[in-house]
Amino acid sequence: MHLNRDEEAILAGEKGEGSRKAMELLVALGDIYGAERLVPISCAHLSGVSYKTIAEGGISLLEDMALDARVCVPTTLNPAGMDRERWKEMGISPRFADRQDHIIKCYERLGVTSDCSCTPYLGTNVPKRGQHIAWAESSALSFANSAVGAKTNREGGPGALAAAIIGRTPEYGLHIDANRAPGVVIEVEGDDIDYSMLGQAAGAVAGTRIPYFKGIRPTVDQLKTLAAAMAASGSVAMFHVEGITPEADAFSVAGLERVAIGRKELDRAREQVNTGTDPELIAFGCPHLSVDEIRQLASMLKGRSRQGDAEVWFCTSRHTLAQCPRESKELERFGKLVCDTCMVVTPIEERFKCTATNSGKACNYLATLCSQKVVFRDAKGLVEMIS
Amino acid sequence: MKLSGRGISRGVAGGEVLLCETPVSFLGGVIPATGALADASFNGASIKDRVFAFPRGKGSTVGSYVMLEMKRAGTLPAAIINASAEPIVATGAVLSGVPLVDGIDLSLLRPDDRCVVDGSKGTIELPDVKEVPVVSCFILHGDELLMLKRSDKVSTFQGHWAAVSGYIEEGETPDQTARKEIMEELSIRDPEFVRSIDPIRVRGGDTIWAIHPFLFRAKDRAVTIDWEHTEYRWALPAEMAGLKTVPGLESVYRSLLS
């Protein structure tokens, strides 16, 4: 990879050890992927926040980097391992809470905004079409590529942090327009589509190819759900929706493989993810609930009363919560409004064995990262369970 | 001897080679507290302070953080050699300061080889292994290849079928050696050169043979063999599989054609 004089100087350690290490990582990744140079980025979003995932090894990295490095573009954080205010109510140990707080403080020292959410694009970190960005968090980066038209690869947490410190990322993959072309056409049949299960089925079909959807007209919230599910069931970092997403018209789909997904495929996906029957935790909000979703849930639950004794969580960001104080009070009658975290990155496996969700993404990760049996229902179905 | 690859993570470090033939996930595959490989077939062998050689990384991105955990525990490998590096192990190696070189043919390594990895230059050094450059010349006539049976007077692979071969002496180019050996072993002067390719390296004991393959065409079938061979025959390339040949003869020929 070719480096300019400034980049060479950083690699030689002229801007300190943290920046040197960040540059060495970008060069290593760029060489592996065959990038020829670095491109400037507008913003970054980092994974690698929950103490459950990064543990003490991650902390020592952040401590080292925070000694002399700072991010130089607006940078946000993924969900942490707990609600920073209500962690005791979540059953988090004081030791875990202490280490989690320390992680977030390290990020703050690095100059990162500490609203911990997987939906930064809903308010705290909104990229523009055509901008190069470096985002980790598979669902958010797919939304940014697909629904916004910003350009990012599937970054790992350290790679995104390195890019945020340097303000650049290696130019390969989805930073290059030709690589943003669709690789498979998915024709969706039927109405009233469940976007979680559509994502679950489509991700398995697409694998690492970029799908081009026909026959759907998703809202922003449905694009968020679809992006998250496909990133988890496949490795989809970008998709197009005919007539909806900004780059859908830029490419021809002539000659591509066409796959139909209808009622039968969605039912099969639902059968595959449903592995439990009796949830101890019922969790909404993966990705984090938007303002609209909180309002819809509040109106569904209005006038109803709490049923059952399962723990109930509504996971969202602090930024979103602040915009709907009235609705969140309504939801509090049924469960906890949980911020900064979600059911996938907090250690629920220490308390629960079976979790209900309306998220295709969560179906995948609850089983693998949290050792949970999974009950999948749509939002209405979950509402019926709790009221 | 020195092998060249690509430097992925900087720094220089050495140790004895621990060879794993399958892709490695640090998450689940290595026990951070001890550096032991979890796979039972390694009998608890630890990668701590070793030159850990494996084809490539795999699995969860959390694997990068496992290497940072190993740094805290003091159980990191001295260096890593990959056939082809991928981002998870590369990230872990850069952040934990472990030199990593990729683009190395792992079949040239043996367990417990002493090895120095230079991640800044992209090379690995095997101080106890010497490289011996040789030529291997296939002679074609029509569709047939000349096969030579090695006599009991040569030092290696007696009684095996082979191509024209010989050590490249100091100061000789591979092409000069090839023509010299063809003249000596077959009394063919000025054979028609068809093609040659970059050397193929093969490990045998403490030697890495750097085989420079050549393909020549002979004008006629008459051949005068010297003391190095007891007989010769013209055979179709497909017949090579049925002969007792020197190791790798058929694969060297195939590389020469591809």
Describe the structure.
The complex is a heterodimer of chains A (387) and B (258). Chain A has 387 residues and is of the alpha/beta class. Helices cover 41% and strands 14% of the residues of chain A. Chain A has helices at residues 5-11, 17-33, 51-68, 94-109, 138-148, 157-166, 195-206, 220-233, 263-273, 291-301, 318-321, 325-332, 360-369, 379-386, and strands spanning 38-40, 44-46, 75-77, 134-135, 168-170, 184-188, 211-214, 240-241, 258-261, 281-289, 311-316, 336-339, 354-357, 373-376. Chain A has a 5-stranded parallel β-sheet, sandwiched between helices. Chain A has a 4-stranded parallel β-sheet with strand order 8-7-6-9. In chain A, strands 3-2-4 form a 3-stranded parallel β-sheet. In chain A, helix 7 links the parallel strand 6 (184-188) and strand 7 (211-214). The radius of gyration of chain B is 23 Å and the shape is elongated. Chain B is of the alpha+beta class. In chain B, the strands form 3 sheets. In chain B, strands 1-10-9-3-6-7-8-2 form an 8-stranded mixed β-sheet. In chain B, strands 11, 12, 13, 14, 15, 16, 17 and 18 form an 8-stranded mixed β-sheet that branches. Chain B has helices spanning 26-29, 63-73, 87-96, 174-186, 249-257, and strands at residues 2-4, 6-9, 12-19, 30-31, 36-37, 51-54, 79-82, 100-102, 114-118, 123-125, 130-141, 144-150, 161-162, 164-167, 192-196, 200-204, 207-217, 229-235. Chain B has 5 helices and 18 strands. Chain A binds chain B through residues 21, 24-25, 28-29, 31-33, 48, 53-58, 60-61, 156-159, and chain B through 6, 8-10, 32, 61-62, 64-72, 85-88, 90-91, 93-95, 100.
